[in-house]
């Protein structure tokens, strides 16, 4: 269970890090992916 959550968090944060600039939509989308 925690491994799956950890994998999803790492993937999502990796996507955000590549963008360089965060928008509110980016954060909302990331939160939806983690849920």
Task: Outline the secondary-structure elements.
Elements (H helix, E strand, L loop, with lengths): L1 H18 L4 H11 L1
Helix pairs in contact: 1-2
Describe the fold and architecture.
This protein is mainly α. The protein has one domain (2-34). The protein has helices at 2-19, 24-34. The longest helix has 18 residues, at 2-19. The chain is flat. The two termini are 13 Å apart. The relative contact order is 0.19.
Task: Supply the key terms.
35 residues, mainly alpha, 83% helix
Q: Based on helices, strands and strand pairing, what is the structural class?
A: mainly alpha
β-strand percent reads under 5%
Through-space gap between termini: 13 Å
Give the helices and strands as they follow along the chain.
HH
Radius of gyration: 10 Å
What is this entry, summarized?
With 35 residues, the protein is mainly alpha-helical. Helices cover 83% and strands 0% of the residues.
